[in-house]
Design goal:
The protein has 15 helices and 23 strands. The chain is of the alpha+beta class. A 7-stranded mixed sheet has the order 17-18-16-15-21-22-23, with helices on both faces. The protein has a 6-stranded mixed sheet with strand order 3-2-1-5-14-13, sandwiched between helices. It has a two-stranded antiparallel ribbon with strand order 4-7. Helix 13 links the parallel strand 21 and strand 22. Helix 9 crosses helix 14, helix 11 packs across helix 12 and helix 12 crosses helix 13. The longest helix is centred in the last third of the chain and has 27 residues. It starts with a strand and ends with a helix. The structure holds adenosine-5'-diphosphate.
Length: 494
């Protein structure tokens, strides 16, 4: 009877529920967007209650649409936007203020103080992260410092902190489970990834009482029971979105790498049982594992402007009508004609870390036109991703042979072929593009016994398309040197 897994995919802009069957196939999806609030100057907020309500709606909708009753659900798996910070009152269950979203820069000065105060090395060695407003720690501190009465209440043990997974599971279990998993904990900047526990020294540094912090349990395991339309359903997985996608892509071996091509590009590499310290300022975090397994680590690098450059072509330049059309324009040309676009709209991320860099278009001749700009935009996604792959390869001291891909822009065949060529690796695109939700479902399904272990996943979501590198080395070198010149030009721009 109980043969479905319900994955809750809590993204940055929407809540989704996806039902997976016993063969790992997604059989029904329901999605609901929630509001984003942008108080000036650079804040980003969400309403945690609205996020929870959106999930309740999608869960019910999914069951109704599919005709699958709650009694047929074996387990729930949760995956979520990471770092976003919710602080709520333990007694009333109400958040004390809006959730501070990962993109919010209100604590940038606080993060800078950490760098100026010489804390970078200590924070890096304990958490694998580079001090930044992005992570939860400075966000929690901001709430305790700025919401009236919050610090006193926190010190009296009356407030709870959670990333969105913790909040959702606390609500779903009727306040019974106050839990998270290592993939989420490792993005708070309060979690010691070497010792796998909350770090006392860091909690003191940010003034966060340990009583506010959830219990950290393995990503696939026991997280309590949700009441779903009168049925008690075990929650058996929690994983942050990027690590869930790595699991969903079945990147179980050391050196396995995935890239999610969305608005930005997120690259994660499984580095096995030892954390790798990056010489290229990539981040080290914890991977998703099941109860009883040894901890696993990941290296992470991201590209700020990935698919967003295609949105820019559409919305700001108006030279394409939709994203998919970009492929046809790029294919009209036999090569890029020496035109390169570096979409450093808000600086350059790994491995450059140059926040002053700005977008630059180089190599224009009288013969260059719309198709060249479109092609250069698509190529820029692959060049930037390639830069991160090269940095990862240097950090682990190994050549990378394969890349698993997902996300909206991975639908673009030109882009995938160019990625294979420019990075000289095999690009593998699975049939199921929902790697994040699949990861949560696979973890939950193994943990509850519906899927008989990782081996069983081999037949799930088979490879759909494989792009082999075909470009001659000399051509690759020529293009890379053009790209490097363009990057130098954009960094010179102040
Ligand atoms: P997110 O989860 O970040 O919202 P998605 O995975 O939904 O992103 O991907 C959306 C992004 O992918 C958009 O930036 C869009 O421009 C880009 N995109 C979608 N389809 C294509 C395509 N066929 N070619 C190029 N880019 C695309």
């Amino acid at each position: 009877m109980k043969k479905y897994i319900l994955a809750l995919d809590e993204g940055t802009t929407s809540a989704r529920s996806i039902l997976f069957d016993a063969s790992g196939k997604a059989v029904c999806t329901s999605q609901k967007e929630f509001s984003q609030h942008y108080p000036p100057p650079v804040w980003v907020e969400q309403d945690a209650e609205e996020i929870f309500d959106a999930h309740c709606f999608t869960m019910r909708d999914c069951l109704e649409k599919s005709g699958i009753g709650p009694g047929m659900i074996a387990a729930i798996g949760v995956t979520n936007q990471r770092e976003t910070t919710v602080v709520w009152d333990k007694e009333t269950g109400r958040p004390v203020c809006p959730a501070i979203v990962w993109q919010c820069r209100r604590t940038a000065d606080e993060a800078k103080k950490l760098l100026d105060g010489g804390y970078e090395e200590m924070i890096r060695s304990k958490t694998g992260l580079i001090p930044d407003a992005y992570f939860s720690a400075t966000k929690i501190k901001w709430i305790l410092d700025n919401v009236p009465g919050a610090r006193e209440k926190a010190e009296a043990g009356k407030l709870l902190f959670g990333t969105v997974d913790t909040w959702l599971v606390w609500k779903l279990t009727g306040a019974k489970s106050f839990v998270t998993d290592p993939t989420n904990a490792s993005r708070t900047m309060l979690y010691n990834i070497n010792e796998n526990r909350w770090d006392e020294e860091l909690c003191r540094l940010f003034g966060v009482p340990q009583s506010m912090l959830p219990e950290v349990r393995p990503s696939g395991g026991e997280f309590g029971y949700a009441d779903l339309m009168g049925e008690r359903i075990p929650i058996t997985a929690i994983a942050g979105d990027q690590q869930a996608a790595l699991f969903g892509q079945k990147c179980f071996g050391e050196g396995d790498l995935k890239c999610t091509y969305g608005t930005g590009c997120f690259l994660l590499m499984n580095t096995g049982e030892k954390p790798v310290k990056s010489a290229n300022r990539l981040l080290t975090s914890v991977g998703a594992t099941l109860a009883g397994e040894k901890p696993q680590y990941v290296l992470e690098g991201s590209v700020f402007v990935g698919g967003a450059v295609i949105q820019w072509l559409r919305d700001s330049l108006g030279i394409i009508k939709n994203s998919a059309e970009s492929e046809e324009h790029a294919l009209r040309l036999s090569d890029n004609g020496g035109v390169y676009l570096v979409p450093a709209f808000s600086g350059l991320a790994a491995p450059y870390w140059d926040m002053a860099a700005r977008g630059t278009l180089v190599g224009l001749t009288r013969g260059a036109g719309r198709d060249h700009i479109i092609r250069a935009a698509l190529e820029s996604i692959a060049f930037q991703t390639g830069d991160v792959i090269r940095a990862m390869s240097e950090d682990v001291g190994k050549k990378i042979g394969e890349l698993k891909v997902d996300g909206g822009a991975s639908a673009n065949g030109f882009l995938m072929r160019f990625q294979a060529d420019i990075s000289a690796l095999k690009v593998i695109r699975p049939c199921l593009r929902e790697a994040t939700a699949a990861g949560a479902a696979y973890l939950a399904g193994i943990a509850c016994g519906l899927y008989p272990g990782r081996e069983a996943l081999k037949t799930f979501s088979p490879e759909c398309d494989v792009f082999e590198p075909e470009m001659p080395d000399t051509e690759r070198e020529r293009l890379l040197s053009g790209w490097n010149r363009a990057v130098r030009a954009c960094r010179a721009a102040e």
